[in-house]
Every structure is written in C-alpha cells, then in structure tokens.
Amino acid sequence: MRVAAVLPAYNEESRIAAVLAAVMQAPEIAEVWVVSDGSADHTYDVACAIPGVHAIQLPRNQGKGAAMMAGAVNARADALLFLDADLQGLTPAHVAALVDPVISGHADMSVGVFRGGRFLTDLAQKLAPQISGQRCILRPAFLRAQHAADLRYGVEMAIYRHAQAEGMRIASVELFGVTHPMKEEKIGFLRGSLCRMRMYVEIFRGSVAPTIERRRARLTQLLKGRLGNS
Fold it and tell me: Could you give the CA distance from residue 137 to residue 79 in angstroms, rounded to a whole number?
C-alpha cells in the first residue's frame, strides 16, 4: 500500500524541518507533501529546500481542512498520513506505528495520542483523543469527507465523526515522547488564549458537521423521492 505524508502548515519555518527529517527517514512513506496555508514566513521555502518533498503554497490562509484536502487531492497514494508541522520528538518509529494499522489491513484509520511528552498536551489528548492531528486514513475515505475542507480547528473532530458514521475501524496509537508547543507559547498569551477559545468553538462545529451533512443528504433524497412521485 502506497502512503503519502501530508503536513498542513501555517508559519512553521522554525519547526517543520525537524518533522520532515523524521518522515523522510520512514521507509513506509512513499511521498511527502507540505501545504503552506498562506504562511507569511518561509515555511514554503524550507519545505522546497528538502529533496523529495512536494510543497504547495496556498495563496491565502484557508484553514487546516483546506490545506489537508489540497495535499490529499495531489497525493498519489492509497493512504494518507497527516501530521502537524510543529511536532517535537517525532521519530521514524512513530511514523511506522501510525501507518502500520492501516497498511496491515487491521484498521481504516489510526489516531496518534501523545504520551510522555509534556503534561498539558498529554492531558488534552487523554481527555479528547479525537482532536489529534496525527492520523493515517485510507485516501478514498478522507476524500469522501468533503465538509472537512471548510473547517479549521474542528477538522480532526469532523474526520473522526465521519469515520464513525461510515463504520470505519479506528485504531489508537500511543506516541511516546511526542508533543508540540501550545498556542500561547507560539503567538503570545493573549492571542494564544483567544485562538484557543476559537479552537474549542470550531471543534464543536466539527463534531456536528457530519451529522448535519447526513441529515441534509437524507432530506435531499426524501424531497427528490416525493417530487418524483408527484
């Protein structure tokens, strides 16, 4: 099974190279895509400078879901490995652990959960493992989640709900020693706190988006049926 790694990134010029180094060393990965989501820094240039990495620069910031979809559409693979571009402590062994349940046929999607990295990020993912940005999923299944492209922080929850609705087999993979900086550390306490509040709102939106989409589809089918019988 051919696996493509997709890294949606926004202003991660100082962090993305370390993540890519681990990904590029993993033999399970056939191709690597970095999608710079309208970054104002040199994220795109850093990615382009690494041999073997395919980079896309979106003209403006559209949100994580749009960046993920851009990478998925361009990738030529059976499965997609999504990774955050600011990870700390990622190794090729972590990449293999995330990919294995899917390429072995034991799961349709795997979700990576931080353990032993730092207390706050471990706690956040212990309380809500569904929001992890680290996952491997069959490409056709991800492409069917069209609503994901419209979401920002809520995209992971939307993908998880989509997978549940389709009856997909989901495997949880513990990523020991992996973490990432918190928003307050990256952009300052005030902006980071506001960003976190917006994130929680969008995660809620992501959790209900698949349900709304299914109800809309059912209603459309019902109306078509009634119109056809009238």
Answer: 6
